[in-house]
Amino acid sequence: MISPSLSPNTDYHDVLQSLRMLISPTQWKEGSALTWARQWFSQRLAEGELAFFNSGRSALLALLQAFGIKVGDEVLVQAFTCVAVSNSVLWVGAKPVYVDIDETYNMDPKDAENKITKKTKALIIQHTFGIPAQADKLLSLAKKHNLPVIEDCAHALGVAYHGKKLGTLGDASFFSFGRDKVVSSVWGGASYINDKCQIPNAKWKLREIEKKLQYPSFFWIFQQLLHPIAFSLILPSYNIGVGKAILVALQKMKLLSFPVYPEEKSGQQPDEFPKRYPNALAALLKVQLTKLDQLLQQRRACAQQYWTALKSHPEVQLLPFSKEAGWLRFPIQVDDPEKLLSRAKQSGILLGNWYHNTIDPTGVDYEAIGYKAGSCPKAEFAARHIINLPTNVIPEEASIILSYV
Ligand SMILES: Cc1ncc(COP(=O)(O)O)c(C=O)c1O
Hints:
Layout: H1 12-22, H2 32-44, E1 48-53, H3 56-66, E2 74-78, E3 81-82, H4 83-91, E4 95-99, H5 109-115, E5 120-126, H6 135-144, E6 149-152, E7 160-161, E8 164-165, E9 172-176, E10 189-194, H7 202-212, H8 218-234, H9 242-252, H10 279-289, H11 292-310, E11 329-333, H12 337-346, E12 359-360, H13 377-385, E13 386-390, H14 395-402
Parallel strand pairs: 2-4, 2-5, 3-12, 5-6, 6-9
Antiparallel strand pairs: 1-10, 7-8, 9-10, 11-13
Helix pairs in contact: 1-8, 1-10, 2-10, 3-4, 3-7, 8-9, 11-14
The chain binds pyridoxal-5'-phosphate.
Residues 55-57, 81-82, 84-85, 126, 152, 154-155, 176, 178, 189 line the site of pyridoxal-5'-phosphate.
């Protein structure tokens, strides 16, 4: 069974740490792991302010608040994104204005320029799948129009662009530690404001926002700690039906969380966001961050294997290979993705269906989040034709996956 889309980063180190934390509830909210994570990030980013939250969406929300984005403002976001990004903009009362993508699956600088109005107050540069956006063009556009830039590094921890670390290019950035991200603590996120940011008091506001927030409930933390343990049981027995039964049962008992809450699909804000980042999850993050180089190396090697195998394939569209990209997923475009996905599924390979919607996941109410069908044709085309091959697999598994393409 290759099931790279369900909790892909988890190994026995994570399971052991979850078990250790489960029996130490006095350390669930505050503790030394959070201090460790803060130091880890501050050593790797330029001088600035860091804050930690219970998700990437909470981290983005805090940045928008610290930048004073409010009702009546517009924020440029790319289409071909997660509803969590649109929602953070909506939750401060502003309007997400969707920009079409270029051939890197990131914001198209030309379309971005067309969408700037007097109400535009910020630009969010997403580095989709860890593939850097055309940051130099987008940064000079932002400079020309005097717009602050927030980099969405939810897929791009540890990645560089022309030798410069992603997350340090703009005024601010945020990272996600969600279950399917570069490193995972099931939920979590960090915000960062660069010292070069000119917005008055933004760093102070970010610090205050983090300080004043509450921690998530004990039950919520318990749910997340259970996740790596549950998946260590579910994945090995998924093929024989036992794993799937455990998964469904735990979800029915509401003991496992979904990556998107149902109300978020129509732009609403669940009570769970924003909250502070609990120490229990920082302890999971610590285990993962110590493996970051190894995880990135594996993903890049896997992407190289896919690219070499597929570069001359007549029915597959590929991006040029980049050694700098983080390749959280390896995107290919084919005529009929469903055919390929279901063939792989029949053989026990769950390839997953990331970004098969212009605004992901399936079921998002486009009207509620302000996306007009037809307004970003390239993003819509990509969503209809993409398959994201998993990159957290060993070469033998990658070869099996390639046999389905
Ligand atoms: C590009 C992008 N940005 C932001 C987020 C939000 O991160 P989180 O799930 O940690 O809230 C996601 C979520 O998957 C994402 O794909």
